[in-house]
Design brief:
The protein is mainly alpha-helical and 261 residues long. The protein contains 3 helices and 6 strands, in the order H-H-H-E-E-E-E-E-E.
C-alpha cells in the first residue's frame, strides 16, 4: 500500500514555494494571498513568517532601483571628475614641459648671441691692437727720423760760418801787411757775427751782464774786486759769456763782482 504525498501549497502573489512537513505523513494546506504559511518541524519548534504584500515588494524594488541609479550616477560623476582632473593634470604637465623647453631654447639663444658678441668684440680688440701697433711703429720711425735730422737746419745755418773760417785759414800762412791784417780782422768779426746770428735763429742768446746786479741763477762769480764807482754786488766784467736756449741756461756767465767798500 503506497502513501499519498502531500500537495505543495501555492502562493498566488509570489513564485510557487513547496511547503515542507518534517516528521508528518499527511497534512492540509490552504491557499490564501493574505494567509501566512507556517512550517513546523517534528519537535513543534519555531515558525517563520513571510510577508507577500505586492505593494511593499514594488516599493522596495523602486527604492532599490533608485539607490542603484543614485550609485550609478555618483560613480559616473566620480569617473568624470577623475577624468577631468587627469586631463587638467596632463594639460598642466604639457604646459610645464613646453615652458621648460621654451626657457631652454631662450637660454641657448642668449648664449649663442653672447658668443657672437664676444667674437665680434675680440675681433674689434684685435683690430684696434693692430692699429695701435701700427701707430706706435710709425711714431717710433718718425721719432728716429726726427732724432737723426733734428740738427739739420742748425747745421745748414753753420755751413756759411765754416766756409768763412776756411777762407781765413787759407791765408793764415801768408805774409800780410797792416791793411791785409785789418781785412783779416774784419773777416773774423763777420764770421763771428754770422755764427751768433745762426745760433740766435734757433733760440740761443748770450748772457753778458756787465754793470748789472749779480744773479746767481745766471752768473758765476770767479772773483771779487773793490770798485769805488760800483756798488757791492755789481758785475764789473765778464770773463766768459753765458748762453741760454729758449730761456733755459746752457752755460752761466763767469764774472767779476764788486765787493763791499
Amino acid at each position: 500500500m503506497q502513501k499519498n504525498k502531500p500537495e505543495p501549497s501555492l502562493n498566488k502573489a509570489s513564485n510557487p514555494r513547496p511547503a515542507m512537513n518534517n516528521g508528518a505523513q499527511g497534512g492540509d494546506a490552504s491557499d490564501s494571498p493574505a494567509q501566512t504559511n507556517i512550517q513546523q518541524d517534528q519537535n513543534g519548534g519555531e515558525t517563520q513568517k513571510s510577508n507577500t504584500d505586492p505593494q511593499q515588494m514594488e516599493g522596495l524594488a523602486q527604492t532599490t532601483n533608485a539607490s542603484l541609479d543614485d550609485m550609478a550616477a555618483q560613480e559616473k560623476q566620480d569617473t568624470q571628475k577623475t577624468q577631468d582632473t587627469q586631463k587638467t593634470q596632463d594639460t598642466q604637465n604639457a604646459q610645464d614641459t613646453q615652458n621648460a623647453q621654451d626657457a631652454q631654447d631662450a637660454v641657448a639663444s642668449e648664449m649663442e648671441k653672447m658668443a657672437q658678441d664676444n667674437d665680434r668684440l675680440l675681433r674689434a680688440l684685435a683690430q684696434k691692437q693692430n692699429e695701435i701697433n701700427h701707430i706706435r711703429q710709425r711714431g717710433e720711425r718718425e721719432a728716429s727720423q726726427i732724432k737723426k735730422f733734428a740738427l739739420q737746419d742748425f747745421v745748414a745755418e753753420l755751413l756759411p760760418v765754416m766756409d768763412s773760417l776756411e777762407k781765413i785759414f787759407e791765408h793764415s800762412g801768408d805774409e800780410i801787411d797792416a791793411q791785409q791784417f785789418s781785412a783779416f780782422i774784419a773777416g773774423a768779426q763777420l764770421t763771428h757775427k754770422n755764427l751768433f746770428a745762426a745760433l740766435h735763429k734757433f733760440g740761443v742768446t748770450h748772457v753778458n751782464p756787465v754793470d748789472e746786479q749779480f744773479d746767481p741763477q745766471l752768473h758765476e762769480a770767479i772773483s771779487t774786486n773793490a770798485d769805488k764807482k760800483a756798488s757791492a754786488g755789481t758785475v764789473l766784467s765778464v770773463v766768459q759769456k753765458g748762453y741760454t736756449l729758449n730761456g733755459r741756461l746752457l752755460r752761466a756767465a763767469k764774472v767779476v763782482v764788486a765787493s763791499e767798500k
